[in-house]
Design brief:
Distance between the termini: 20 Å
Largest sheet: 11 strands, mixed
Structural class: alpha+beta
Helix content: 10-25%
Number of strands: 11
Radius of gyration: 17 Å
Number of helices: 4
Strand content: 25-35%
Length: 227
């Protein structure tokens, strides 16, 4: 089922389920892009990237001109992105800024976060805040400043806070459905025509751990809209 957050003549945004491919891949499984194109009855253009095990807001433009406008906003860092992550270990500080230099390993499809500059590495930055915890897990609100490959996953692993289920980055065990507990929660950008701010909010998946950690945290979901 397609969980539509907003749908108008310029773009559509959906709340992607964990484990679903955002775009077609070698598995041949139905992707979110496939389902959204069937819904809109037209080709769509992906604007942001979400890894398959990640859940949350995926944005698609309905024309190339709109895609260019929205991707330019991402490139110029005028888009506000907020993620939620469940991690295994408590971070060293309740809130802070992480700065690393990332190197991608193409053959393994992983990224290493180094503490210092080195040839070929790209600077990555994020802000985090501890907003909930249980006996075993910790809930972080994350504001990535840059948008690099596996940035959040690699940077949290670098401070010994691997995301639940993310065995690629040091989690103790995988989730049963091969998802990870990383969720693209909020996205704020300028309407491509009017310039008015658009804020999208997507509720995290329903499971015992998300539910327990989100108890008392204000979470809302924008209902499907044809506006």
């Amino acid at each position: 089922m397609l969980d539509v957050l907003i749908n108008n003549d310029l773009f559509i945004a959906c709340n992607k389920a964990p484990g679903m491919a955002a775009q077609p891949d070698k598995t041949g499984d139905d992707s979110l892009l496939d389902l959204a194109e069937k819904r809109c009855k037209r080709p769509l253009h992906p604007v942001n990237r979400l890894d398959r095990p990640v859940s949350g807001i995926a944005l698609f433009a309905k024309t190339r001109a709109v895609m260019t406008d929205l991707t330019d906003q991402f490139r110029h860092r005028s888009v506000e992105k907020v993620y939620l992550a469940v991690v295994q270990n408590e971070p060293p500080e309740a809130q802070g800024k992480l700065v690393h230099f990332l190197q991608k390993n193409q053959s393994k499809n992983t990224t290493v976060a180094h503490p210092d500059e080195r040839p070929g590495a790209e600077r990555a930055e994020l802000d985090y805040k501890l907003i909930g915890k249980s006996d075993r897990y910790f809930l972080l609100e994350i504001h990535p400043v840059s948008g690099k490959h596996h940035q959040i996953r690699a940077q949290l692993a670098a401070i010994n806070c691997p995301i639940k289920g993310d065995v690629k980055y040091g989690a103790r065990r995988s989730n049963a459905d091969r998802s990870i507990h990383l969720h693209a929660w909020k996205l704020t950008f300028a309407h491509p025509r009017s310039g008015a701010p658009i804020e999208l909010v997507a509720a995290p998946p329903k499971d015992v751990i998300w539910d327990a950690l989100l108890n008392g945290v204000e979470i809302k979901d924008i209902p499907p809209a044809e506006a």
